[in-house]
Design a protein that fits this description.
This protein is an alpha/beta fold and 414 residues long. It is 40% helix and 11% strand. A 9-stranded mixed sheet has the order 1-2-3-5-4-6-7-8-9, with helices on both faces. Helix 2 packs parallel to helix 4 and helix 4 packs across helix 5. It is elongated and about 90 Å long.
Length: 414
């Protein structure tokens, strides 16, 4: 039953893309100019400078931006935007996973990537989500439809711009002291990650989810609209031309070891990024790790595979230099008991409204949460008489000689 359902989802996604295509999008494809650009030395230069990253203090310090290292004619597209999810205060000592979305994939960038980023943080990694060229706030208003074969030169320049921005962000992160950088992309984002892996040996690992290994007229082949299907011969010719260049991942070899590469194949994808292309890429890249998932393109890219992010993070852990370490002290075994922990947990939940389960009294800001905890522990240890001890815990420990009043606690603020 899952195979017909996944194919229906993929077919629906194709029709949604064709509805956004303007009727005159193939008037000037500029294939010859694109081929000249792709075969020239300026497509992806060997050198890459670190990005000049600036954080927006008005948005929790998580949103960042930097000027594109490959600016174009559209000013809106020349500023790169993203989000950075830090793993603790000493984030510079942690590896980073850069998340790359697919074409027009606002669902992943706005909703799924924040969830994956939190999982990365729990696993000990920083996470960054990067906005691709001509997407979201970078998309000029005069540019209609979807970026693709309608203008091959613009498509090639956007690809070069995306790779340059990924490498610039990687350079900035490594310059800040992060020990390793990995790329994790889906669909078009996986294609970008694959191209970066063929040119940047600094990458510690890449995860390619339902990647587009080569150019194919997937929208025109499956479109219901006659106007779109009529463009199939023209688009097929454009794809054949582009596949003779570096836009075809099968024509290049990665510069990182194959053990650092993971392919996520959508086994039921026969429309957008066919599994046959992924198999060809797997063989061309000397058979790196591959997971053949019984889902379609939309299923793999939109999080319909149960437990996939956790599996990928377990795969990334040894490749990013992160190790699980047992940290233990020398407790008195005669006094080991979970009763004290459970009692403390209950006391906190009964004493602080923001710890009450299944309510809307939770902390809305980390700073407010920290202040509430500090006030609670100060009162609990210095001002509240313990029923068993008959004194405050601070008096029992010998660090106070009297029961503190609320006035004394308030005076500490000054």
């Amino acid at each position: 039953m899952i195979a017909p359902l996944t194919k229906l989802l993929d077919w629906s996604a194709v029709q949604a893309v064709t509805l956004m295509m303007p009727p005159d999008c193939m008037q000037r494809p500029r294939l010859e100019e694109a081929l000249e650009f792709l075969k020239g030395p300026e497509f992806i230069p060997n050198e890459s400078q670190p990005a000049q990253v600036e954080f927006d203090p008005g948005k929790s310090g998580m949103h960042f931006r930097f000027p594109s290292p490959r600016p174009g004619n559209c000013s809106e597209n020349n500023m790169v935007y993203g989000r950075f999810y830090r793993c603790g205060e000493r984030w510079q000592e942690r590896p980073v996973v850069i998340l790359l979305h697919g074409s027009g994939d606002s669902l992943n960038y706005n909703f799924r990537f924040p969830l994956i980023a939190r999982r990365c943080n729990r696993a000990g990694f920083n996470a960054a989500a990067l906005v691709a060229p001509y997407h979201f706030q970078r998309r000029p208003r005069q540019l209609g439809g979807s970026l693709g074969y309608s203008d091959c030169l613009q498509f090639a320049e956007a690809t070069a711009q995306a790779i340059a921005e990924i490498r610039a962000l990687s350079g900035w992160l490594l310059g800040k002291g992060c020990p390793a950088v990995a790329l994790w992309g889906y669909s078009m984002g996986a294609w970008y990650a694959g191209m970066a892996a063929c040119r940047d040996a600094r990458l510690a690992a890449v995860v390619l989810g339902a990647t587009c290994a080569r150019m194919n007229p997937w929208a025109e082949q499956r479109a219901v609209r006659p106007r779109v299907r009529a463009r199939l011969p023209l688009v097929r010719g454009l794809c054949d031309g582009l596949n003779l260049t570096a836009m075809n991942l099968l024509t290049a070899q990665p510069v990182i070891p194959k053990k650092q590469i993971l392919l996520l194949e959508a086994s039921y994808d026969s429309m957008i990024c066919p599994k046959e292309d992924t198999e060809d890429l797997w063989r061309a890249w000397e058979k790196p790790d591959i997971w053949r998932l019984p889902h379609g393109h939309v299923g793999v890219c939109c999080g319909f595979v149960p437990g996939l992010p956790e599996r990928v993070l377990r795969w990334l852990t040894p490749r990013l230099g992160s190790r699980k370490t047992v940290i233990s002290g020398m407790p008195d075994r005669e006094n080991i008991s979970t009763s004290h922990t459970e009692r403390q947990n209950l006391t906190m939940r009964m004493s602080m409204r923001r710890f009450t389960r299944l309510t809307n009294g939770f902390s809305k800001k980390v700073e407010s949460h920290e202040h509430a905890l500090a006030l609670y522990f100060m009162y609990y240890n210095f001002a509240r008489v313990h029923q068993t001890l008959r004194v405050t815990p601070a008096m029992e420990a010998g660090i106070a000689d009297h029961v503190w009043t609320l006035e004394e606690i308030v005076c500490l603020i000054k």
